[in-house]
Design brief:
The complex is a heterodimer. Chain A has nine helices and no strands. Chain A is mostly helical. Chain B is α/β, with parallel strands linked by helices. Chain B contains five helices and eight strands; from the N terminus they run H-H-H-H-H-E-E-E-E-E-E-E-E. Classes of the chains: A mainly alpha, B alpha/beta. Chains A and B meet through helix 1, helix 2, helix 4, helix 6 and helix 7 of A and helix 3, helix 4 and helix 5 of B.
């Protein structure tokens, strides 16, 4: 059984449990999808407050739909939750347009995702600094040209004098180092937090 | 959407950087809503991209930032310092080796040679000093001395020498012209030709003369014939003849 299939069977069971009035199943469903809903909402709305509102509204509607037996396929529950999230976001953008607060990111055609600052904290900065120290000067140039200057791969390869495949290799290796160090940071912090609270 | 496609097309990074077409974006969102692994990749990539862009914005990825980054900075000062130190050690070792294996043996050889020369010079000096001392000692006890004059024939009068009764030695003083002989021989015989004394290996003193000491006991009152021969280098030859007459007071 694949992961998707396993998740699908869990969702089928969850839908059945919720329809039978099981409150714990509702909590489990929320915990399984709340991060994803919040992430999509945050990316689109670029506002933590709006993202929280979207998440709350989305789960309210999803649970109501499940309880009212309005979900056509329990196995397609992830797609149903995502669709509901998008609907809530559209309503949010409609309200914003009416009040003149802002425009939708997609319609605005912003090249740079301003939501990225929401993912930037001291842990991330610290981890990135550690990675940069390990990099060779040419690799630093490469990352700068790719992620900051957003040059095409051909131009990066031409300027740095390395093959396109090498550009991809450097990126993936830097990302892998980041993942390892960042997870280590988080694990250390989590342990220290547990110790304090314990 | 399959994981292979996601990997090959770098869907995660492109999604994070808003570079997917709307259809691709929706498809991928549907995928990671049911895929924990891809959702985790998206979260990590979001942070990575945000961090890299932030670092680049702060100049940490600029071409001339190799110096200010602490660890790289420490490398830049100690690597050349280490290189210079290593070179200095190698040069010092080479100089030490050259001194130890070339110069020291040479100086040691020169020293031993000088010591040998010094010993030889000391020996020569001691030998030279010995002769004047002997002369001094002889003079000190009032040894009788006779200065011989070369004879031109039997009719010439002999040189008289008064030999005291208690004298043990008689010194013959013979002037010698500077020739090519280093050593000389003196033969003393009676007028009848009986050999009395032969003195060999005599060397000229600083007065260009030979001072030969002859035991007095063999010199009874009477006339004697003395021949001077050149000895070294050979061949030896007769240089002069003398006549001497001994008297007793």
């Amino acid at each position: 059984m694949t992961e998707d299939q396993a998740l699908g069977s869990v969702d089928v069971q969850a839908v059945a449990d919720i329809q039978n009035g099981n409150a714990a199943a509702e909590t489990a469903l929320y915990e399984r999808y709340c991060a994803k809903v919040y992430y999509v909402a945050l990316r689109e709305s670029r506002s933590p407050q709006d993202a929280e509102d979207v998440r709350a509204e989305t789960f309210l509607r999803v649970l109501q739909a499940i309880r009212g037996n309005q979900v056509r396929s329990a196995a397609a529950l992830p797609a149903f939750i995502l669709g509901t999230t998008r609907n809530v976001l559209h309503e949010l953008f409609s309200r914003r347009r009416q009040t003149g607060k802002t425009t939708e990111p997609e319609t605005a055609g912003l090249a740079i995702a301003s939501h990225e600052k929401l993912f930037l904290d001291s842990e991330v900065q610290q981890t990135i600094a550690q990675i940069i120290v390990r990099l060779k000067p040419r690799e630093r140039d490469l990352l700068r040209m790719h992620f900051y200057e957003e040059l095409p791969a051909e131009e990066i390869a031409r300027r740095s004098g390395i093959a396109r495949e090498r550009v991809r290799l450097v990126k993936s290796r830097a990302l892998r180092h980041f993942r390892e160090l960042y997870n280590r940071h988080r694990a250390t912090q989590s342990n220290s937090t547990d110790t304090k609270h314990g | 959407m399959m994981h292979q496609q996601i990997e090959e097309q770098e869907i995660v990074e492109r999604y994070v950087r808003d570079q997917l077409a709307p259809e691709e974006k929706r498809a991928f969102e549907e995928h990671f809503f049911s895929c924990e692994e891809c959702f985790d990749k998206v979260q990590v990539t979001e942070r990575f991209v945000a961090g890299i862009r932030d670092a680049a914005g702060r100049g940490m990825l600029a071409e001339d930032t190799r110096g200010p980054i602490p660890l790289r900075g420490t490398h830049t000062w100690w690597m050349p310092a280490f290189g210079v130190s290593a070179c200095a050690v190698v040069i010092l070792a080479a100089i030490t080796g050259w001194l130890y294996f070339v110069q020291v043996p040479r100086i040691r050889g020169q020293l031993s040679q000088s010591a040998a020369e010094l010993r030889r010079a000391q020996q020569e000096r001691a030998a030279m000093e010995q002769q004047p001392q002997q002369r001094g000692m002889q003079a000190g006890v009032n040894v009788p001395l006779v200065m011989l004059q070369a004879t031109r024939g039997f009719r010439a009068s002999p040189t008289d020498a008064i030999l005291p009764v208690d004298a043990a030695q008689l010194v013959l003083w013979i002037d010698v012209d500077s020739g090519h002989y280093r050593t000389y021989r003196v033969e003393i015989s009676s007028v009848a030709g009986k050999p009395i004394e032969t003195l060999q290996h005599l060397r000229r003193n600083s007065y260009h003369a030979l001072a030969a000491s002859v035991p007095a006991e063999g010199l009874q009152p009477g006339e004697f014939q003395i021949k001077l021969f050149g000895e070294e280098p050979p061949p030896g030859s007769l240089l002069a003849e003398y006549r001497m007459r001994i008297r007793r007071p």
